[in-house]
Structure formats: C-alpha cells, structure tokens
Design goal:
heterodimer, A: 278 residues, mainly alpha, MetI-like fold, disordered N terminus, B: 256 residues, Rossmann fold, six-stranded mixed sheet, four-stranded antiparallel sheet, 10 strands, cell membrane (chain A), membrane (chain A)
Chain lengths: 278, 256
C-alpha cells in the first residue's frame, strides 16, 4: 500500500446522488429506484433458493422468517439495545481514532522532519490488519470496552492520518505563497488556508475511516463481546438461528450506509463554495 | 535624477540543480523612482518572473542587493503587494473575505478593515460582488479581485507578474486601461512583468528589455508620453516596433 492520495476510495455514485438532493426530480427518483434493483433480485433469488430447497432452511432461512425475527427484535427493544451499544463503541473509537489521526496527519503535513521520523513506522504498523492486533491487545488490555475502543480507533486512525497528510501535501504551492505574502501565522494558515484546502481529502479519509471503524467493530464483537450487534450474530450462529445472523448483516449494512450518507451530507454543507459558475 | 526608491544592485540569482548551479539572473542593476511604472519585458526563460519573486521576497537573491527606501528586502512584507498570473484567490472564501485576508496582520480595527475592502472592491469595479464565491467569477473579474487584494494594504510597491497573461484579448485590453486608471489614481510605484510588448509600452514610464540565458537587462527604454495613453498613438507604435526588433535578431530570444 502506498502513502499516496487515496482519492478513489469515495464511491462515485454517492457523490452523484448528493448533488441531486437539492432538486428532487424524476431522474433522482429513477436513480434511487435503480439502486433497489440489485437487492430486489437478490431477494427473489433467495426466496427461490429456499422454495426449491437448494440450501437447507437451517442454513438459509426464508426471507419471511428473517423479517419476522427482525420485527420481533425491533419490538422487544433488543435490536435497539444491541445497536446502541455498538454505535456507542463506534462513536468513541471513531472520536479517539480521528482525533489522533488528524493530529498526526496534520503534524506530518506541516513538518517534513516529523514525517521522516514517523511515517515509515506508521505505515509498517498500519499494514497489520485489525484482526492481527486483537490477540495482542486482548493480552494487554483484556476484553473490556477499552479493547473495542482501541481496535476501532486504530482502524479509523490509519486512513484519516494518511488522507490528512496527502491533503496537505497536495495543496497548490500558489495558495501557500499567498499566505506567505500576507504573513499569516500558523493558526491563521491552518484555519484559513491549509484545512479548507485539505478538506476534500480529509473527508475522503473520514468517510473511509467510518467504514473501517464499522468493520472493526463487527470483527471485535464477533471475537470478544457479550453484547452488541456483532454478538447478536455470534449468538445466532451458535444457536443455529441463521435468521439472527442475517438480521445482523442487514442492520450493519443499512446503518453503515446511513452513516456514510450522513457524512456525505455534512461534507456537502462544509464545501458550499464549490458551486458551479453561472 | 531623483533618488532611487526601489533599487537593485548587481543582483544575481542561480538555482541549485543536480549538475551544478544554473544562473537565471546576472548582474541586474535597476533604480526605480517613487511613483514610477516600470515594465519588464522579455521572452520565456529570461528570469523576469524570478526577478519579481525576489522583489516580493518569495525567493532570495544569490548575490547583490535589493533595497526599498534604502532598507534591504528580506522575506515578504505587507509593504510589497503582488498580483500573480493565476489569480490565486481562495475558492473557499468569498470575494470580500479573500481581500480581507490580506489585512489579517494589518494593525487596523475591524471597521477600518471592512472599509478598506469595500473601497478597493469599488476601485476595481466589483462592489456588488463582495459576497460572491470566486467560482462564480470570470477570469477577468477574478484578476480584478486579485488586484484589489494586492492594493488593499496600501503597499509602497505593487508587483504584477504577467497579471493579464491568462486572459482573452478583449478582457486584457480592458484591464490594462483599468490598471492605468488605478495607477494614476493611487500613484503607487508599480513593477509589471510581461511578455507582451504592447502592454509594456502602453503602461510603463520605462520598459526594461531582458534577454535570456542567463537573464540580463538588454536595455532600458524611456516612454516619455503622458498617461493615460491611447494604443494607436504613433509614438507607442514606433516604440513597440523598436523593442520588437530586439527579439527578432536571434530565434533564441524570440518571444513566447
């Protein structure tokens, strides 16, 4: 993996959707509807597979059973309880990881010396996936909440650091020269020039980090937890209730998508200056 | 002769390359009077932009001295304003905030700053565009904002680095006239770097003709005509022909 700008992370289709938020049109409705074609086909395939007994019902429960379990978990409040535990873990890990990542990324962006000292080690450490860190961290901090926060924070920190660094490195030299001409101090440069110029890259990092953090959460909950949405899935698998596993998968997918869309909306608001010329 | 306001003495500049130093400016001597408009004209690679970067303080001379009011030029200073060829407005700031940013370190009250910004936006004819985003402006309008930003600190010297080079011919002519008007109104010492001989003679009290490899001053041409000038004035046309001759001798020094 290189330390170069990781711009291609952002799914292009999402950007296109956002730009139409302001003006709902037939085209917009059409694009929203077309996003449902694939899930619908999958649902049909699933139902057919169940009806034809391609896979046993114990392994692949029918959609109706999954829906029933979902509604049951919803009404009993279990779903919300597990989900809120998971979301809290993601939130805390995300805040910790992004604060550390921003500090480190901006620090390296401002100081080539710091970059020279820290970046190679940082990249070596970030090559080890979250899953590889869990056994060691378990021994160090146990399997309490702090393990989840650390694992999620680590997953979040890597893309934020690298994107903050790339965002600052890619600021056009001319912008920095203007800041030099008007003798802006460090705080003024950061607030008025560096952060706004690096914002698109920062947001790419933040959105990717949220996805990473969400994945890390599920990983750590599957391995070491007695509550949360990941645990719900482990529980379901152990009791051979695959409908619970699929409910977990659906919830994780939908919540992840909503979080990403929420960030995309915030990004659009922050970059309101990127309006087309008239 | 009037005492030099802005003075360049035996200025040298070379860039350090892998295979040794590359001289880009050699033995530049030039004295500029207060309130004077000096055009520096030359083809690409004659070091004219580097010369301006030395004056604004974004580059350091390898030798010789640059003095403004007998004080050596070191680093950037609010006393020296600049307009670049690419307007370099920050797209995330409104027109007003872009100009205001130039005053970030000026010892002024908030009200004074805003007044100065309004005054300079009016000077370049963009009063109604204070709240516009740069992405909503045309190239010519953006360059006007850049001029307002360059002037808003009331610098002692205004440096212009091919400010109209990226504009279409009509807009360029219009902005040249505007610049002449602003210069007459403000009386600010101005150094214009350009590859456009017409522009150099139209605006300059003197035209410094440079030649490349390494960048040197070939000659300095006086333009003893009152401002504002008309483009079709016979004397201007003759001066232009005369200066263009300098570039026609060898293909190496042809204008870009």
């Amino acid at each position: 993996m290189s330390n170069l700008p990781l711009i291609s992370w952002r799914p292009l289709s999402l950007r296109a959707d956002i730009s139409r938020f302001s003006a709902p049109s037939l085209l917009w409705v059409g694009s929203k509807a077309s996003a449902l074609v694939f899930p619908a086909l999958l649902l049909v395939l699933w139902q057919v597979a169940v009806n034809r007994h391609w896979v046993s019902a114990q392994i692949l429960p029918p959609p109706s059973l999954v829906l029933e379990s979902l509604l049951q978990l919803w009404h009993s409040g279990d779903l919300w309880r597990e989900l809120s535990i998971s979301l809290e873990r993601v939130l805390i890990g995300f805040v910790l990881g992004s604060a550390a990542g921003l500090l480190l990324g901006i620090g390296m962006g401002l100081s080539r010396t710091l970059e020279a000292y820290v970046l190679p080690s940082f990249q070596a450490i970030s090559q080890v996936p979250v899953l590889g860190w869990i056994p060691l961290l378990m021994m160090l901090v146990g399997i309490d909440e702090s393990l989840k926060y650390l694992v999620i924070a680590k997953a979040v920190m890597v893309p934020i650091t690298l994107n903050a660094l790339a965002g600052i490195r890619n600021i056009p030299k001319g912008y920095l020269e203007v800041a030099q001409v008007y003798q802006l101090g460090l705080a003024q440069r950061l607030r008025r020039v560096i952060l706004p110029a690096a914002l698109p890259s920062l947001f790419t990092g933040v959105r990717f980090a949220l996805t990473k953090g969400w994945i890390a959460l599920v990983t750590v909950e599957l391995l070491a937890s007695s509550e949360g949405i990941g645990y719900l899935m482990v529980d379901g698998r152990q009791m051979f209730q695959l409908d619970l596993v699929i409910v977990g998968m659906l919830v994780i997918g939908v919540v992840g998508l909503l979080l990403d869309q929420g960030l995309a909306w915030v990004e659009m608001r922050l970059q309101r200056w990127q309006r087309p010329a008239f | 002769m009037t005492a030099a306001f802005l003075s360049l003495q035996r200025v040298h500049k070379s860039f350090a390359l892998a295979d040794g130093p590359l001289p880009v400016l050699q033995d530049i001597n030039l004295n500029i009077r207060q309130g004077e408009f000096v055009s520096i004209v030359g083809g690409s690679g004659c070091g004219k932009s580097t010369l301006l970067r030395l004056l604004v303080g974004l580059e350091e001379a390898s030798g010789g001295s640059l003095l403004l009011e007998n004080e050596p030029i070191r680093g950037t200073d609010l006393a020296r304003g600049i307009v670049f060829q690419d307007h370099r407005l920050y797209p995330w700031l409104t027109v007003e905030d872009n100009v205001l940013l130039a005053l970030a370190n000026a010892p002024l009250s908030k009200a004074q700053r805003h007044e100065l910004v309004q005054e300079h936006l009016a000077l370049v004819g963009l009063s109604g565009f204070a709240k516009a985003w740069p992405s909503q402006l045309s190239g010519g309008m953006s360059q006007r904002v850049a001029i307002a930003r360059g002037l808003v600190n009331r610098p002692k010297v205004l440096l212009l680095d091919e400010p109209f080079g990226a504009l279409d011919a009509l807009t360029r002519a219009q902005l040249q006239d505007e610049l002449a008007r602003i210069w007459l109104a403000e009386g600010i010492t101005t150094v214009l770097v350009t590859h456009d001989v017409d522009e150099a003679v139209l605006l300059g009290d003197r035209v410094v003709v440079m030649e490349p490899r390494p960048g040197r001053i070939r000659r300095v041409v006086e333009v003893n005509l009152p401002h504002p000038r008309r483009r079709d004035q016979l004397e201007l046309v003759q001066l232009r022909q005369d200066i263009l001759q300098d570039f026609s001798h060898s293909p190496n020094t042809a204008l870009a």
